[in-house]
Amino acid sequence: MKNIKIPVIALLFVSTIGCEAQKRDGVKVLSPQEATAMLAEDELTLIDVRTPEEFAEGHIEGAQNINFLNVNFKVQMQQLDKEKPVYIYCRSGNRSAKAAEKLQEMGFQKIYDIEGDILNWEG
């Protein structure tokens, strides 16, 4: 039993540090409930970073599809207003976390990553 507790505690500790690091680095992770409330604002950009095929299967209303895996991802993102809040999501959180890092490097000021992404949104 003790062997199981140590890895679980370590995993929770590392997860907490990861979330805090994202917040310190300028990316705020939002729950789907928090995102729903904030998406009512007019001055924001909602980006689905999944593939066009995934986007066609279903997406959050009002989202633009800019595929993170596309070689033109940065070029497409450069066309957006860096001063407006940018909300991003993918299927499970991996691509949106990587996209958030890229957006920071590109100078975006207000980046929001929707936690759990489309899987939580649909739920």
What does this 3D model show about the protein?
There is one protein chain. β4, α5 and β5 form a beta-alpha-beta unit. This protein starts with a helix and ends with a helix. The protein has one domain (27-122): 3-Layer(aba) Sandwich (Oxidized Rhodanese, domain 1), CATH 3.40.250. The protein has helices spanning 2-24, 32-38, 52-57, 73-78, 94-105, 117-122; strands spanning 27-30, 45-48, 64-65, 86-89, 111-114. A five-stranded parallel sheet has the order 1-5-4-2-3. 49% of the residues lie in helices and 15% in strands. The protein has 123 residues and is an alpha/beta fold. The longest helix has 23 residues, at 2-24.
How big is the Rg? 16 Å
Q: Give the fraction of residues assigned to helices.
A: 40-55%
In total, the number of domains comes to 1
Report the major sheet.
5 strands, parallel
What is the residue-averaged pLDDT?
77
Strand order of the largest sheet: 1-5-4-2-3
Number of DSSP strands?
Answer: 5
Distance between the termini: 33 Å
Shape type: globular
Note the beta-strand portion: 5-15%
Number of helices: 6
CATH level-1 class: Alpha Beta
Low-confidence stretches: 1-22
CATH superfamily: Rhodanese-like domain
Q: Structural class of the helix and strand makeup?
A: alpha/beta
What string, H for helix and E for strand, traces the elements in order?
A: HEHEHEHEHEH
State the CATH topology.
Oxidized Rhodanese, domain 1
For the record, the CATH architecture stands as 3-Layer(aba) Sandwich
Protein name: Rhodanese-like domain-containing protein
Organism: Autumnicola patrickiae
Domain Rhodanese: 40-123
InterPro entries: GlpE_sulfurtransferase (IPR050229), Rhodanese-like_dom (IPR001763), Rhodanese-like_dom_sf (IPR036873)
